[in-house]
């Protein structure tokens, strides 16, 4: 995001080690690689290589990473997709595709295409120069060419078809085109714009499918009205903006209905809905259950508006970021990302496998 996330079969074992993944890693990988597309929830540094002001390659971002180096992740440590990747034994960090120093091993095990500030609607990034999801899909074609050269066409096809693809976007589309400047809402109405975005999601999935990907974890919207930036701009003070949360819920219900229809049209595909609304809203409603104390502002600066270039080197930071849901005014802390990863590992990722797969591979 720019300004800008039931137990299924059996719970996976959660580890208490702060620097580890949320679940006990497997002895072997369930997926050969991981690919991520979307916004700042997933960007691990692509914006460092773009002419955009939406960057996180400066302190205090990254203070939990080795050497306290800000890598371009919009949090204090790793992101939820990296905890998921670690838990299924792919790797613990996902490098940005635009990094010119990528090794063959990094290419082979997957990369990040996400760009902070991105959306499904190309209008969303018109002023920021972030990469819309449509451009990220084009970059995946470039990735395939590089991987072909490195490992050959057959190996490339095998890697891609069994890999895990995570897509998280949409929040910036609503913030930029509905809540801040209601351009799209005026033209299409809120429900109509939701439908347009979901048509774009279908196009994204179909294009990636045509390039060989088969396993998709597609996120709905978070409770947008609970993002500290939105609370501040709508003068919500300490409370979530419920109208915006209702918009997110309606959008998510449409997406839940859409994804099985897309899967039915794409033979051999598996498309799983990633519910990021429920865990984030539950952290807001029951922070003590997660060891959190602050959920309505970020750890950086005042926590009300600071994100990207506003969360800067000399911004004060909270003394206890592991008790904050948000690191900046738009993005989760590493703790928030860990909790989100645990939820998805419990509820979404197991849907790619049978119960017997889980019992034999995880326990």
From TrEMBL:
Per its UniProt entry, which superkingdom is the organism in?
A: Eukaryota
Signal in keyword set: yes
Q: Where is the signal peptide?
A: 1-22
InterPro entries assigned: GDSL (IPR001087), GDSL_lipolytic_enzyme (IPR050592), SGNH_hydro_sf (IPR036514), SGNH_plant_lipase-like (IPR035669)
- MF-aspect GO terms: hydrolase activity, acting on ester bonds
Instruction: Tell whether Signal is among the UniProt keywords.
Output: yes
Which CDD domains does this one have?
SGNH_plant_lipase_like
Which Pfam families does the record cross-reference, listed alphabetically?
Lipase_GDSL
Print the keywords alphabetically: Signal
Family, as annotated: Belongs to the 'GDSL' lipolytic enzyme family.
Name-wise, this protein is OLC1v1006371C1
Species of origin: Oldenlandia corymbosa var. corymbosa
Q: Give the source lineage, highest ranks first.
A: Eukaryota, Viridiplantae, Streptophyta, Embryophyta, Tracheophyta
């Amino acid at each position: 995001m720019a300004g800008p996330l039931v137990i299924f079969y059996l719970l996976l074992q959660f580890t208490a080690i702060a620097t580890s993944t949320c679940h006990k890693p497997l002895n072997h990988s369930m997926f050969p690689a991981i690919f991520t597309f979307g916004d700042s929830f997933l960007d691990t540094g692509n914006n460092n290589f773009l002419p955009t002001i939406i960057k996180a390659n400066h302190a205090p971002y990254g203070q939990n990473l080795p050497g306290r180096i800000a890598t371009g992740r919009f949090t204090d440590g790793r992101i939820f997709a990296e905890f998921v990747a670690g838990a299924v034994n792919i790797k613990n960090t996902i490098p940005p595709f635009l990094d010119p120093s990528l090794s063959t091993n990094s290419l082979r095990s997957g990369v990040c295409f996400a760009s902070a500030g991105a959306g499904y609607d190309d209008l969303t990034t018109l002023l920021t120069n972030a990469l819309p999801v449509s451009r990220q899909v084009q970059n995946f074609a470039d990735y395939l060419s590089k991987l072909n050269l490195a490992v050959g066409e057959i190996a490339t096809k095998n890697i891609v078809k069994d890999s895990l693809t995570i897509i998280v976007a949409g929040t910036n589309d609503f913030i930029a085109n509905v809540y801040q400047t209601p351009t799209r809402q005026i033209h299409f109405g809120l429900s109509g714009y939701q439908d347009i975005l979901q048509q774009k999601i279908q196009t994204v999935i179909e294009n990636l499918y045509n390039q060989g990907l088969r396993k998709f974890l597609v996120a709905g919207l978070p409770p947008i009205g609970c993002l500290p930036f939105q609370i501040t701009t709508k003068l919500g003070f300490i409370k979530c903006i419920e109208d915006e949360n209702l918009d997110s819920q309606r959008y998510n219900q449409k997406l839940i209905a859409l994804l099985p229809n897309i899967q039915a049209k794409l033979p051999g595909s598996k498309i799983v809905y990633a519910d990021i609304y429920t865990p984030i809203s539950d952290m807001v409603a029951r922070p003590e259950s997660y060891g959190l104390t602050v959920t309505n502002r970020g750890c950086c600066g005042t926590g009300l508006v600071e994100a990207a270039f506003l969360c800067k080197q000399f911004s004060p930071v909270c003394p206890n970021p592991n008790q904050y849901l948000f690191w900046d005014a738009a993005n989760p802390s590493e703790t928030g990302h860990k909790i989100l990863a645990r939820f998805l590992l419990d509820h979404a990722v197991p849907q790619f496998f049978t119960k017997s797969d889980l019992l034999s591979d995880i326990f």
